[in-house]
Each structure stands twice: as C-alpha cells, then as structure tokens.
Amino acid sequence: MLERRGLTPATSMLCCGPREATPMARYAQLLRKATIATEEALTVWFPMYVLPLASLLQLREMRPHEELMAAGELLEFDDSLGNAVFVSHQWLGADHPDPEMKQMSVLQGVFTHLMSDLQTIPVDFISEALVPGAKGLPTAELRSRPLFVWYDYFSCPQAEDTSISVERMRRSRSKLCRAVDSIPAYVAKSSFFLALCPIVENTSRSKLLTPTTWTERGWCCAERTFRELSLNKSWIIVRSHTDAQLVVNPVESLGKPAGEGSFTVAGDRCRLQPLLEAGLMRILQSHLKAQDFVGYRVMLNLQAVYLRGYASGLCEPVPGFSEQDAPLPLALAKFMYQNGFESFQEVDRAGWSPLHYAALLGDPAVVQGLLAQRVDPNKTTQKGQWRVGMPPWTSALALCVYFKHNSAARALISAKARVQAGLLMPPLMTAALADNPEGIRILCDAGCKLHARNLVGAVALYGAASQGSILAMEELLAQARGCEDLQLGPALCFAAMFHGCSAELVHRLVELRADVNERFNAWEVSRRFGVFNFLHQLPHRFGRNTKLARFSYHSQGATPLLFALLSSQWEGASTFISAGARLDLRNSRGVSPADVLREVKAPDFVMQAMDGNLAGCERVAALACRSRTEM
C-alpha cells in the first residue's frame, strides 16, 4: 500500500517522526571526512611537458616532442610556474598534425589577440541564451600568471626510430601510452581549455576540418568530455585569429559521446572506456562530497549518455544497496537508492522529480517502474536546469527524445504523456535539436503537430536548422510530405545564427528553394519572438556588447550571410556565397558583410569573395559537403 501512495517503507516515517537521511546523504557525509580521488589526486603516468607561451609564439615550424626536449625548451609543468592551457585540435595528416602551420598560426594569432587590449572573452551565443547569468572570461585571468601550453605533438613522445633496438622502441611506445593515459590529469591540471577549430583543409586536400568535424573526432570528444568531468567545465572555442568564445553550456559541449566518435586507430575506442568511467566516478564523488546533490543526480543519470557506445554497467557510487531488501522492482529500487529519493513524487531543490532524472538515464525499466507507481507522465520541471541546458516547464518526454532514449519515450507515450507538452522545449523541438529522426517519428506517430510553435514562436524545423541536424530536418520534411508551409527562409537564418550552418544543410535548404538572400524579421516569426529579440538588443544599445546582444541588435533585415559572418561560420558563409548570396545587401542598420569583415580576420577564401573571386568559396563548399558524406 505504501508504494501505491508514492512512498517506500523508509519514507513512511515522514508521517510519524523526523526524517532520516537517505543512504546517499549519509555516504556524502562520510566522503566529507574521507580522502577521495579529487582533481589533485589524478594519476600523472607521464610528466606534463608544456611549452612557455613566449616560445610558442616564436615557433615558425612544428617540431616534435623529442626535438624540443633536446633543445631544453619544454618544461615539466607545476602549479608554481603559472597556468597551463590544454589545446585540443584535429590532426591534418596521418603522421603530422600541422605540417604547414595552418592551425598553429591561428593559435598564435588568437593568443596575441587575447593577450592584447581585449578585456573579455565573450560567452558564446548559445551559452548566453540558455545559461542565466553566464558571463565572459576576463582576459586579466589569462594575464595574471605566466601561461604554459600543452599540445600533443610537442608534449607527448612522437618518434619511433626504426634504427634503434626493439626494446627501446617498446619503451618509446610505453611512454606515449602513459602520456595518453595521463590526458584526464593534464586536462584537470589546466586552468584553460582551448578547442582549436579553424576551417582548414587536411594535408592531402581531400577533406575540410571544421568545428563540426572536431566534434566528430573520438579523441577530441574524449578531451572535451574530460573537461566536462573536471571541476572547471567551461572551455574556449577558437574559430579564427580573432574569434574566441567561452562555452559554458554543457549541452553544447556534450556533443557526440567519445564512444561514438571516429578513431584512426580502432583500439583507441576501447582504451578510453576505463578513463571515462574513472572520470565519472571522480566527479560523482566530488559532487557528493560538496553536498551538491543536484549536480550529482544530473551526472549520475547522464552516465548513459557519456558512456554511449560502450557495453558496460554504470557507476553506482553509493554502497550498501541490497537486492534482497528492495521492496520494488530491482531497476527502480537501485535508481531511488542511488539518487537519494524517498518518494516517487519528491521534487528536489532544482525543481526536478524522479521521473525527470529517469528521463536523463533513459532506462525503460526505471521509467515504467515510476509510471506503475502512478507518477504523472506529464509533470514538467519547475525550474530550468543549466547543467543540461533545459528551461523550466520541460517534460520527461522532451528529455527522453533529446538524449535519444527512444524506448523510454515510447513507454511515456504509452502512459498517455502529451506529445505537445512544454512551453519552450516541447518534445518535437528537443528531438529536432538532438538530430533524433527516430524520436521525431515516434512523436508524429503519436499525433504530434509538425507546425506547432513554442512560447517564442519557433517551430521544430528552426531547431533542427540551428544545430545542423540534417537527419532530423529530413525526417520533418518527410513527415510534412512537402515543404510549402515550412517557411524555409527563416530556417537558413536560424542555422546561421547558431552553429548549424553546414554546407550540407545550406545546400539542402537551397535545393528546397529557400532564399539565400531573405531578410530576417523577428516579428514575422512571432510577436513574442520580436519582443524577445528587442529585449536582448538593449544591452548593446548601452555598450554591453555580448554575442546575443549583438546578434539581436543586427538581426532586423539581416541575410543568412550576414548572420554567418557575425558568428564566424566560415563554412556556411562560403556556401551562401557559392549559392548566390549577395554581398552588397545591408541590414536595417545599414551594416553589410564587408563591414563585419573589417572587425575580424576571416579566412582568405572569404576575403577573396569580397573582391569578386568566388573560386575559393566554391571549393570550400564542395569540399565540406564531400567531407560530411564521408563521416
């Protein structure tokens, strides 16, 4: 009877006496008194060799670890020296990361830019829109102490000289292995994390490397994940010599799980698994020790996402669970025990209930177990949760399809969960943002309306375009059985505003007769969106030049090309230009593409287009499409 009322035997004491601490809370108290694996306790299997920033700025050619060590230019990092900067990047060749200094010249340029008179590294557009109170990084923090750069090619052993003995070769390889296993520690010891993502061609000129391809590379995914699992989660994305933005929205940084990334060496995927599992356990224990039960619950249930691609059990940090004493189905009993919930109807201080955390986990057995206890499948969150980038009034169904837990989504729909629930993030919108075509099919089969708008007037197609979710966009088009009513012009603008402006998506929308020269009008999206846009441009009017304020200020009458240039989406800009975007069109404030380019250092192919030479943009657009299809 207790379970039917949403209570376990433990929680029945709430009615007749003082509340007892849950096993989770008691374990958290023990951790406060014990020594656990913290950031400082991470094992460094190979010394963290770094290059002083002054030396990096003087590099004129890429030199491997062994050469720099022999020249005495590398230092073994220690906190007493200053601050470390971890640089994550893609390799342009199979045997050399950057033979022509294409990426390194951008890294040198952006360091020079950041260390000059720039006051603040701005928060990126998405983080500013989704994370309340998000603030940029004062560059004074970069200048406060000497900087030392970790970059894999000169920080990890590289050479394997075939003339040396087999034993020495084995030792050389073992050093590299130890350095690779130390990457989580290197990330944790670094005060700053830079994702170096300029748009460049690889060595063979057969593929284009972009911010999107960075999110697809397995090792880059892993490095980003290690940052996400450290105490300092924010990182800086670098797209050009003058474009550096602070990412503080975990959903944006979550990207593709490392287990689903692409690896040059297939065995590296399995090698990462124990490192990821250890990182998850550390951050879970850190949250418990700090009594941050909300952060703990979020990370505990996101394990299924972080470890996607691996066949393994999830961490269960709280010891002492007994299957024999569990009065509930096993999966549900473990869930309640590990999450520290006593009641199925409980709402924690973050405004989330057990069902919402179960939606993060995505285990259908847990979701079905909660539904069997008469939990309301349509209950929405009471507050926003910045750790997963979700606003208030988000449903469990919306969370399930966002994190691609489609079996759990079916269980909710079978329990009469409303497919249109949620003011800002209804399920169809979150499925589109996550590029989840199966989730879209599930929702549409349940009667979801394709053209339904959220609170500010956006439809799911705009969400798919904003994140470059090409599979989701194709599914929306298939469900619509045509595109007459889909308002494709605004979709191009939303793609260019955010980070979804891939060549493939632009070409597809243009193929569907979207106008590359359409002028954006926020009031035509909806009256609420117009108000939203007007309010967010006010800081720009008063001198606070954030990314969101600048976009809002310049949005009226802007073309997709202007948005792409404002957001440093060079792949999208080149594709717009090659598709016939006019270079002379100005927004309602009289700003043209040429005006924007005077403020930033754009790639040569974009600058050449401004002078009438479109060949470079056409080549980049074609190469970007080919690279995408080969992923």
From TrEMBL:
SMART domains, per database record: ANK
Alphabetical UniProt keywords: ANK repeat, Repeat
Cited Pfam families: Ank (PF00023)
InterPro entries attached to this UniProt entry: Ankyrin_rpt (IPR002110), Ankyrin_rpt-contain_sf (IPR036770)
PROSITE patterns named in the record: ANK_REP_REGION, ANK_REPEAT
Transmembrane segments: none
Highest taxon of the lineage: Eukaryota
The ANK repeat ranges on this chain: 350-382, 556-588
Name of protein: SecG protein
Species assigned in the record: Symbiodinium natans
